[in-house]
Design goal:
Elements lengths: L11 E4 L1 H6 E11 L3 H8 L3 E2 L4 E5 L2 E5 L2 E2 L17 E4 L2 H14 L2 E10 L2 E11 L2 H24 L1
Antiparallel strand pairs: 1-8, 2-7, 2-9, 3-6, 4-5, 5-7, 8-9
Length: 158
């Protein structure tokens, strides 16, 4: 049985760890996700990958593009189970308009950060993000390594 981390959210389905490494997250929002039945079953089994996904805007709607939800083997055969289906996000009109305006004018992008359960519904934390340069990524790695070494030293002195 796999161990859970101490700080891990028990309602969390998937976390996009690469997002915080590749982007500066300026703002986060919570959005609902419109899913089919087989997708919800796959999410309960943890069969999702958010790594290469992002949010696109089309016809005054927001869509999650590139998220891979692998169908279960026991999924129904009479439905078309497309694992890379573009899934609509459930946001208010003013939120969509504001995000779309920021993406168009500031050169930012909207990326998924985390997928989780909230009151029996699937929610997606999305972030308004700006890309990091290579030297920013190096600084992030350096800081992470220093924090890890600091924790080791503190553990040894106890």
């Amino acid at each position: 049985m796999a161990k859970k981390k101490k700080g891990a959210n028990p309602n969390s389905i998937a976390v996009n760890k690469k997002a915080r490494f590749d982007y500066f997250i300026e703002e986060t929002l919570e959005a609902g996700l419109s899913l089919q039945g087989w997708e919800v079953k796959s999410l309960r089994a943890g069969k999702i990958q958010l790594g290469e996904s992002y949010v696109i805007f089309k016809d005054d709607q927001a869509f999650l593009f590139g998220a891979l939800i692998t169908p279960l083997i026991t999924a129904s055969t009479h439905t078309n189970n497309d694992p890379l289906r573009t899934r609509p996000l459930l946001l208010h009109r003013r939120e969509i308009n504001r995000l779309r305006g920021l993406v168009d004018t500031q050169g930012t992008t909207v990326i998924p950060l985390e997928l989780y359960w909230k009151q029996g519904k699937v929610k997606l934390a999305i972030g308004l993000a700006k890309g990091k340069k290579q030297h920013d990524k190096r600084a992030t790695i350096k800081e992470r390594d220093w924090n890890r070494d600091k924790q080791r030293l503190m553990k040894m002195t106890r």
